[in-house]
Amino acid sequence: MRIAFFVNSIEGETPTYTTTALAMAAVARGHDIWYITPGDFVLRADDTLSIRGRVPPGKRYKKPESFHAALQGDDAAIETMDVSDVDVVFLRNDPSLDADDRPWAAHVGAMFGRLAAARGSIVVNDPDGLSLAQNKLYFQGFPRAVRPETLISKSIDEIKAFIDSHKEGVIMKPLQGSGGKNVFKIGSADEANLNQIFEAVSGEGYLIVQNYLPAATEGDVRLFLMNGRPLEHGGKYAAIRRVPAKGEVRSNIHAAGTAVAVEITPEILAIAEMVRPKLIEDGMFLVGLDIVGDKILEINVFTPGGLSAMLDLYDVDFAENIISALEDKVTQRDAYAGVIANRTLATL
Fold first, then answer.
1. pTM metric for this prediction
2. Where does residue 182 rank: exposed (0-12), middle (13-18), buried (19+ CB within 10 A)?
């Protein structure tokens, strides 16, 4: 099997990224891998689509640090191939990282992903589904029962009124963004720095304001879903609790959050089941739910992370399950010879 991992940039990858774990698992299972970035597509005059990928040398790596060094080293090969010869294009870029400095690159994965799917590659997550999820407004399409009460606005008056109606405070963040950037807890509409926070964050576009969930002090639960269902292996779920640093409201690992083991309760599984139908409909093969109490704060459909921490905590390599699922999809694609649409294959 040939797998192309689409990322924001080669230099931006790290040994602890989930993409690293996925790539290493693919290599360990005997597959060929490429790393591709937003500038690596070529649509030729004869309507063929090529990708220019970076290939790390060697076949197997015992440590992610070794794989990462090989990927970024001078010995990594640069190869060009027709996308029809690529079995799976795995879209693993974060559009928000390119939105400011390289806006042209933010949605290249979904754009060219559609063309790749039309030429026979399996593209996950489905590019049409990802196009629907280009910002946090996508989350509003899920059942109200699993969502915090939410306001989306650029009006400071609307936001102040919303804050006044929630005595435990609110969380305010950009509608487009990730990694815990510009996330603030606002306790009252009378806070002295509210106007300054509003001016700083609203410069990025619309704001999303949610009622604060007191259970967030204990962190959130990141739960992976694959093919619409909780990812598990040997009785263990692909999940962690992300505990915020002292004085922080953000539990993101990039924001100094700490990953600890977590027990997945029937209540959490019920939340996952509630969102499954839409994830299936939208072709979301691999997603991360961020859960606090009985609510989902976010659904990460672009670059859900945490597999490396789960390997350390549980000694389970969930990446192997993910690559195995892709192998099954390639078998199904070949058996049906193009009859099944990419969005269906993505979560089959």
1. 0.91
2. middle
